[in-house]
Design brief:
By secondary structure, this protein is α/β, with parallel strands linked by helices. Helix content is about 35%, strand content about 20%. Strands 7, 8, 9, 10, 11, 12, 13, 14 and 15 form a nine-stranded parallel sheet that branches. The protein has a four-stranded antiparallel sheet with strand order 2-3-1-4, sandwiched between helices. A two-stranded antiparallel ribbon has the order 5-6. The longest helix is centred in the last third of the chain and has 17 residues. The model has no long low-confidence stretch (mean pLDDT about 95). It binds phosphoenolpyruvate and manganese (II) ion. Phosphoenolpyruvate binds next to loops.
């Protein structure tokens, strides 16, 4: 169990919570992160109702954790981590970074046109799926090896870095060799053998939260990568299912983002495209994410979304991408960040 204290909590309130924990016979470890103190309850408080501590003065949130976590925690007074992705691109801290590109790499023309456009706007992180985890076996499955080659070619032509999803051991090894950042998608967030392999990589990992994953599940998955020795992890919140009935739209868990950033110094970006699934909602959701204080966005953008082989309805046109960037310049300031254009 983790008790997150409000940023405004007094030292006396922190001590009172620690004493309450001890009175139940549990051990305590405390760190005072930049977003407020974090109190780790040691022992096995699984049977205790969260509200026992949740109702104490100064407590912001109580998070249940199922297993032992070690490395994910923000250390004493540790500032937000800045994760180097390659070629001088750094995510976290005061910068607000944009990851952008098509859902799938479809052709040389398509990915080159996208890279040319994005780089001309100062965006340096090119995303594009080569190995696609599609919901239907009859949908376009990606250009696979060729798609990866085309993504790398387009990025190197425009001085960009690449992010692309690994779906199995084969694609992971190939992507780790050729791309700059390995993406683990929502469907594989709990593929622990893949996560263990990510832990051994000398490449940063963009870990997307599964759409049914609790905060606890997400933290365990991050810990798997950290435990292997790879500390370069960026988390991506892409929405969780549940409140939209049987629709496949998801809700961005903003409270989960701030709880995660309270517990851990690692950066969290938001993917509004896969959460809302419709172009008209990408900009509003991006605005909310930027104002809320996340560390960046991952946006699907396509030169001609109506002909896209995957996720066209949620992909921004270049024109809409320009509008989004214009808005983000101002909105990011609301959370004390700066839109990072290179
Ligand atoms: C993607 O980013 O291409 C993707 C498939 O997203 P998710 O894993 O979040 O569904
Ligand atoms: Mn997509």
């Amino acid at each position: 169990m983790i008790i997150l204290m409000k940023k405004t909590a007094s030292q006396n309130q922190v001590i009172a919570v620690i004493n309450a924990v001890k009175s139940f016979g549990f051990g305590v470890e405390q760190s005072s992160g930049t977003n407020g103190a974090v109190i780790l309850v040691q022992g096995n408080p699984g049977h205790l109702d969260k509200s026992v501590f949740g109702r104490l003065n100064g407590v912001a949130e109580v998070v249940q954790v199922s297993g032992k976590l070690n490395r994910i925690y923000r250390k004493e007074k540790e500032p937000d981590s800045q994760i180097e992705l390659g070629k001088g691109v750094v995510v976290g801290g005061a910068d607000f970074n944009i990851f952008a590109g098509p859902c799938s790499v479809e052709s040389r023309e398509q990915i080159i046109a996208t890279a040319a456009f994005l780089s001309s706007r100062g965006i340096r992180i090119l995303r594009g799926g080569a190995f696609k985890p599609r919901t239907s076996p009859y949908s376009f499955q990606g250009l696979e090896d060729e798609g990866l080659e085309l993504l790398v070619e387009a990025a190197s032509q425009y001085g960009m870095i690449t992010v692309t999803e690994a779906v199995d051991e084969y694609s992971l090894d190939l992507i780790a060799e050729k791309a700059d950042v390995v993406q683990i998608g929502a469907r594989n967030m709990q593929n622990f053998s893949l996560l263990k392999r990510c832990g051994k990589l000398n490449k940063p990992v963009l870990l997307k939260r599964g759409f049914n994953a609790t905060l606890d599940d997400l933290m365990v998955s991050v810990e798997y990568i950290l435990a292997g020795g790879n500390s370069r992890v960026v988390v991506c919140e892409r929405g969780i299912r549940g409140i939209f009935g049987n629709s496949y739209k998801s809700a961005v868990d903003f409270m989960g983002i701030s709880d995660f950033k309270h517990i851990s110094a690692l950066p969290v970006i938001v993917d509004p495209s896969h959460a809302c699934r419709s172009r008209s909602r990408v900009i509003p959701l991006s605005r909310a994410s930027a104002a809320y204080g996340c560390d960046g966005l991952m946006i699907e953008v396509h030169p001609d979304p109506d002909t896209a082989l995957s996720d066209g309805p949620q992909s921004l046109t270049f024109e809409l991408m320009d509008q989004l960037l214009l808005e983000l310049k101002q909105i990011t300031e609301l959370s004390g960040k700066k839109l990072k254009l290179y």
